[in-house]
């Protein structure tokens, strides 16, 4: 699953409504640690509608994260 923020294919469904109704799901990204709910607004969950200022490019990731602490981000 693609992360809406860093666009890696490292996102996964971390949780869902306990009654299995599909009312909500929670997604998380292993690459940038972003998390979002399926119930959030389109400008959060839809990659095409997100504000580019909030996207996390590889260059921004290097600025944001201490790569010595997250070795898997070193590429
Ligand atoms: Zn991500």
Structural account:
- By secondary structure, the protein is an alpha+beta fold.
- It has one domain.
- It has helices at residues 42-45, 58-64; strands at residues 11-16, 25-29, 35-37.
- A three-stranded antiparallel β-sheet has the order 1-2-3, with no helix packed on it.
- β1 (11-16) and β2 form a beta hairpin.
- The longest helix has 7 residues, at 58-64.
- The radius of gyration is 14 Å and the shape is flat.
- It binds zinc ion (ZN).
- Zinc ion (ZN) binds next to loops.
What can be said about this structure in brief?
By secondary structure, the protein is an alpha+beta fold.
Topology:
Elements: E1 11-16, E2 25-29, E3 35-37, H1 42-45, H2 58-64
Antiparallel strand pairs: 1-2, 2-3
Shape: flat
Distance between the termini: 21 Å
Question: What is the chain-wise order of helices and strands?
Answer: EEEHH
* Unreliable residue stretches: none
Domain tally: 1
Percentage of residues in helical conformation: 10-25%
Annotation keywords:
single chain; 75 residues; alpha+beta; 3-stranded antiparallel beta sheet; flat; binds zinc ion
